[in-house]
Amino acid sequence: MSADPNHPQSEPEFRPHTYDGIREFNKRLPNWWLFTLYGAIVFWIAYWSYYEWFRVEPEGPAGIQLAMTRIEAAKLAATAAANLNDKSLWEMSRNPVIVEEGSKTFQSNCIPCHLASLRGKHESPAAIGPDLTDQYWIHGGNPLDLYRTVTEGVPIKGMPTWGPVLGARRISEAVAFVLSYHKEGEPMLVDPSVLPAK
Ligand code: HEC
Q1: Scanning 5, 69, 116, 126, which has its CA 20 to 30 A from the CA of 109?
Q2: What are the structural domains of the chain?
Q3: Which residue pairs, CB below 8 angstroms and at least 24 apart, start in 109-114?
Q4: What is the pLDDT of residues 158-183, one digit of tens each?
């Protein structure tokens, strides 16, 4: 039986069990070891609740995808601010981060008249805004036409002038959100309500 190497003077104290002839000193675990263990438990709870229970941020490939989409959104927003055109608005309409921002602007400003479904009059006669999901357009269906209609409005018909209220960035996002219901290259038809009466 060998003495406790840390305290050569004291009689070594052993725990009662023996496995395969191996006996264990009855000693407290060192503090650094305990703190590492408790720290790992606290880290585990924080990590697991962040990523798994509350799903604050997606992990792995989905997290990378989200980060890339955000970078792309920032680049597109910068392009759109410098040079807004049909192409950049279509690209924005395919970026989920921008579409999500546009959706928020739409929810808080546009649904009284166009409804949350964007189908307006088509869904309910009480809504005064036209359907923004069909292929008929009163003021043109190109992205820049939508942008102009929203910015300038059609005050005599009840469509407010949003330019001074929302500003260019939020309007381009709202237009991208409307465009996300459409496909580039789809037919754009003239709304029958603006054709001359037969
Ligand atoms: C107070 C009611 C009202 C609100 C709020 C409203 N609109 Fe409109 N909107 C209309 C009406 C009415 C028209 C049709 C104008 C016309 O007949 O010329 C219209 C037309 C449009 C058009 C053109 C549709 C076409 O066929 O050419 C777009 C795009 C549009 N709105 C987007 C928006 C967006 C985006 C918002 C929120 C930022 C919004 N609208 C908020 C009433 C509204």
Answers
A1: 69
A2: 14-53 (no CATH), 64-194 (1.10.760.10)
A3: 109/162, 109/165, 109/166, 109/174, 110/174, 113/158, 113/159
A4: 999 999 999 999 999 999 999 999 99
